[in-house]
Known about the structure:
- The protein is of the alpha+beta class.
- It has one domain: LCP protein (Aminopeptidase).
- Helix content is 37%, strand content 17%.
- The protein has ten helices and 14 strands.
- The strands form five sheets. The chain has a six-stranded mixed beta sheet with strand order 11-6-1-2-3-12, sandwiched between helices.
- Helix 3 packs across helix 4 and helix 4 runs antiparallel to helix 5.
- The longest helix has 54 residues.
- The protein is globular.
- This is Putative transcriptional regulator YwtF.
- Belongs to the LytR/CpsA/Psr (LCP) family.
- Keywords: Membrane, Signal-anchor, Transmembrane, Transmembrane helix.
- One of its GO terms (biological process) is cell wall organization.
Amino acid sequence: MVKQKNMRGRRVTRKKRKLRKGVLITLIIIGLALISVVGYGSYLYVKANNAVSDSYEDDGREGSDLRDFEVDPNIDNVSVLIIGVDENEHRNNAETSRSDTLMLATFNRDEGSVKLVSIPRDSYVYVPEVGREEKITHAHAYGGPKATIETVENLMDIPVDYYVRVNFHAFVDVVDAIGGIDVDVPYEFKESDSMDKGDAIHLLPGEQSVDGEEALAFARTRKLDNDIERGKRQMEVVNAVADKAASLSSVFQFDDLIAAVGNNMNTNMTFNEMMTFIKYATGGLDIEDMTLEGSDYQPGSTYYWLLDEPALEETKRLLQDHLEISSSSAEESGETYEDSNSEEPTEERTYEEEGSYEEQGDPYQEEEPYQEEQPGETYKEEPYQEEQDPYQEEVPQEETDEYGNPL
């Protein structure tokens, strides 16, 4: 009996030791996993911080002129202007690129909601940088983000607190970094790729998964519809990217995502300011999409999107309410400009666009900005050839007397 009790005691002891060993091994594995996660998270945090810091640029403003205080995105409702420019390595047009995509987002902190307005690139608006009506896409070519921000503030009568500018390469790389996105292609089409090679992308209609180059073609094409439908597709892509990037399945792809954005982005946001926007994604993104309504207008060889004034006023009111600011902010701040749609365009005031599409006949007929060189031919790209170079300031002529001597 004594021997049996001793044997039972040893068995219990061994079981306890085995149990302790199992628990210990499990705790070690969990600990190592936590260390790995924390280490990887710290690595991503540092990398993201460096990427945003490298992308930071001063837009030459001390906050919006339509604000009488410095905003803090931790506590204030703010706005962000997303500028997608038609810049790539082939065009070599960093200094004269136009905004191919313009989206204004307003963020309401208490509601955790976002309103996203697509502004058609051909909208006929007042551009303060040059003091006349132009296509809104030209504002960036005249004065970069600052001129674009001023134009949008004048048009929408709300402050633009921050901006994010990305090029074609960022668009492609971000979609590829998250493993592609799902979109609904409305019709069959062929489109240029990010390096302007004509008809390099061929998509068929229907719901499908697309990579970066295909997503760019989907967002850019307007051969068979118009700029409004293109704007809707661009918002579809933005929503798809935001949803997938916020999902758990993309956590370990953040490394590539950070690299993609950091190499092709400029912003006036600091890293800490950018991190405050994570709150809007934690509870599921609540984004309301809108587009500026209007109508086709082509008085001559140049096509415009003429904004509908009552619809524009309603959109402005919705954004002002979302930011919880009063109307007529521009008037109250003393920053008033000529009304953006005060007069219709005339041929004397049009800007001859070298653009990505023909402005003769069908206003949406795309022009291939890049063509393969043929034997015996030399391809020569001559962007922005005009009677007067809009980017070069006029040099005053020195007055002389009748003998040619300076006065």
